[in-house]
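Re: that chain you flagged

S.,

Sorry for the slow reply, it's been a week of failed gels. I finally had a moment to sit down with the sequence you sent. For the record, here it is as I used it:
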Amino acid sequence: MSKDIRYVEFPVGINRTYLDNVCYELDRETDTLTICSEGNFYSSLKKRAPDLINRFGLRKINILKKLSLFLSVVLFVTLILKIVSGDPASLLPLVSISGSLMFFVLASYLSEIENYCNIFRCKNCGRDFAYEEIKRPFVKIVSTYNKYEKTITSYLKCRYCNDEYIRTEIARQNSKSRSKKTDKNRKTCKGCGKDYSLVEYRYPDAHLEYHNIFRTIRHYKCVHCGYVEVRIKDDHIAISRV
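Prediction finished late last night. Pasting the C-alpha cells below so you have them in one place:
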C-alpha cells in the first residue's frame, strides 16, 4: 500500500489558497473548509460499463454488488471474532482481512458501474449510455465540525436527441458529532514556531475516495497565532485490476 500526503497551509490573514489546480477556502468563524476542483471524466468506465451491463445485465450487476458487500461484512466479523478469541497461530485473520477488503473493493467498483449506467441514460429519449460529458464535472467538498459533504455537478448532452442536462448529486455525506480532545499529538507551529502549539482540533474526514484510494483529511490549528494546516493523505490500495 503506497500513500501520498499533501499539506495545505493557511497563515494568519490568508483564507484561500490554490494547490495543484484545487481551491481551498477556510471560513475561520465557523472553521468550515471548502474544497473546489474540476473532476475527471468518466473515461475509465466509458468502455467497461457498457460491456459489463450488456454482458450481465443491470439486475445481475446489482445482485453481485450486494453479495460482495455481504461477504465483505461476514469476513470482517469473522476477523473480529478471531482476534477476540486470541488464536495468533491461525492464518484465518489474514485470509479474512484480505477477502473482506477484496469484496469491499469489488462492491464499490460495481456500484460505480451501476451509477454510471443511471447517470448516462438520457432523461429525454431514454436511451442507455446516450449522454456524453461536454465539460469536466465540478467537484465541491464542504467539511465542518459535524458534517462532511461532497457534491459533483456533471454537464451532459445526449448524442441522439441533443438534450442537455446538468446533474448535481451528493456523492458522499458523513456525520461527525463527537468532540475532539486536543491534548495529544501536538506539533510545532509553522506560523509562530512555538512547540506543541499545533493541535488537531476536530475529528478527521476519513472515507473511500475511489474504489482503490482511502483518503484521510486532518485539521490542525495553532492555539497561539491561529495558523491552520490541513493534511490530506491518500492510501492507495494495491489490488489486481477488477
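What I noticed first: The chain is about 30% helix and 40% strand.

Talk soon,
D.
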